[in-house]
Amino acid sequence: VLLRTWIDEPGLPDNMPEVRAAGFIEVDLVLEKFNGGASLDEATADTDPTQWLTQQWVRFLQSVPTDISAARLEELDARYGLTDTGNSEISARWLVLVVRSGHALGKPAWREAINALVHRYGRRKYITPLYAALAQTPDGLAHAEEMYRTARASYHSSAQREIDTLLASKS
Fold first, then answer.
1. CA 170 to chain centre
2. Chain-centre distance for alpha carbon 148
3. CA-CA distance, 156 to 124, in Å (whole number)?
4. pTM for this structure?
5. C-alpha distances in angstroms, 44 versus 23, 29, 38, 39, 139?
């Protein structure tokens, strides 16, 4: 087992086993196909994403390129109900993807979902990436500032400081 190497030496020993989660392998195969241009049906032919765990959805949503078309986003949303999911981890990642793709503000349901998220959750892990993504464009920044004016009072002081700084640096 090379006990001394594991305990006393820096880094990871050469005999460390490679651990790969089957669920992530499944997601990575779908991503390879989907990001390669395959239709959603083709990309998911061998799996059922409705059965994915939250961590699998997070991996998927964080790995979809931001240059995705509005049509592909709408297809994902129609198939899996991502805008209306009750899962805050999935919702936050989905909405960041939608914002970074540049299509969020043009679709009322996505705008409303973004507004709902920043007013419902004050956790920095959800709101900071969303505000940061919005602040990348003039229209997004204006929308972020508008939402923040009404949501700020409900945030913890550390979240307020972080978002204050973020938005001020983009104005």
1. 21
2. 20
3. 9
4. 0.89
5. 13, 9, 9, 9, 35
CA distance 140 to 36: 28
Cα of first residue to Cα of last residue in the chain, in angstroms, is 57
Tokens read off for 165: 């700084």
Counting Cα atoms < 13 Å in the Cβ hemisphere of 138 gives 0
Q: Which amino acid is residue 120, in one-letter code?
A: R
Q: What is the pLDDT of residues 7-38, one digit of tens each?
A: 999 998 888 888 889 999 999 999 999 999 99
Question: If you average pLDDT over every residue of the chain, what do you get?
Answer: 95
The identity of residue 7, as a single letter, is I
CA distance 36 to 32: 6
Each residue's pLDDT tens digit, 75-114: 999 999 999 999 999 999 999 999 999 999 999 999 999 9
CA–CA gap between residue 61 and residue 87 (Å, rounded): 13
- In angstroms, the Cα distances linking 124 to 134, 164, 169 are 15, 12, 17
User: What does the chain come to in residues?
Assistant: 171
